[in-house]
Predict the structure.
Amino acid sequence: MSVHSYYTVPETVPEFVLNNSTGQVFMQENRFDKASLNWDDVPERVEMAKHFATAIEDIIPLASNMQVMDFGCGTGNVATRLASLVGTITAVDSSAGMINVLEKKLTESKIKNIKPLLTEFNEDSFQKDSFDLIYTCMTFHHIDNIEHVLRLFYKMLTPCGYLVLIDMEKEDGSFHDDNTGVVHFGFDPELLNYTLDEIGFTDIYSRTAYTRVKTLPSGISREYPIFLITGMKSIA
Ligand SMILES: C[S@@+](CC[C@H](N)C(=O)[O-])C[C@H]1O[C@@H](n2cnc3c(N)ncnc32)[C@H](O)[C@@H]1O
């Protein structure tokens, strides 16, 4: 028996993450940097993203000249499925790890119209009227001041531009194994509809987009309904 067989080699998690496009090095500081390393190894996640892409395609009249933002794009499992149907997708994420995985995927797949952007999103990230569609999938429960972000989305949308919000309905905190970085245990879609209306969105519509079934550590199987809400920026 060789000496090496006495050791279990730990899966290495780098402490620093290099952003390939900018050359900047970021400290691996959020849960998603670490999670990015095997994000796509969970088939249920990839499957869920496929459903989200199909739901967006079904509900929004996508067009080849559309400028799109994917807020909290992760490894791009939604964006890569919509890319051939729109003009450009700016894929925004605050995790260097997630952006790195997406960049590798884009190089391998030769998709040219997804522009990954590592940013802590704020009012200076984009100008007014920059996007015809902004969508966000399973990211809002990690965002503290969602009303502030929704107001920024409104500003950054072109008149008659579309917003699509996809996230979990209220849950009891059991969805994530570790709730670090989870700010909301889901949302009440009715309340979100009300907030969108207050901000000025019109044509607000919501429905269940998908139901994620998870087996909890206790062995119990649970259903987590995921809503889709759409709204449109008014013309004026
Ligand atoms: C649960 S993942 C969802 C990924 C992807 N949307 C999907 O459905 O496959 C949430 C993503 O939101 C990103 N995120 C969290 N807070 C963010 C913020 N303030 N700005 C941009 N991205 C953020 C995380 O880094 C992570 O990639």
Notes: The longest strand covers residues 202-215. Helices lie at 31-36, 43-59, 79-82, 96-109, 146-156, 189-199. Residues 1-14 have pLDDT under 50 and may be disordered.
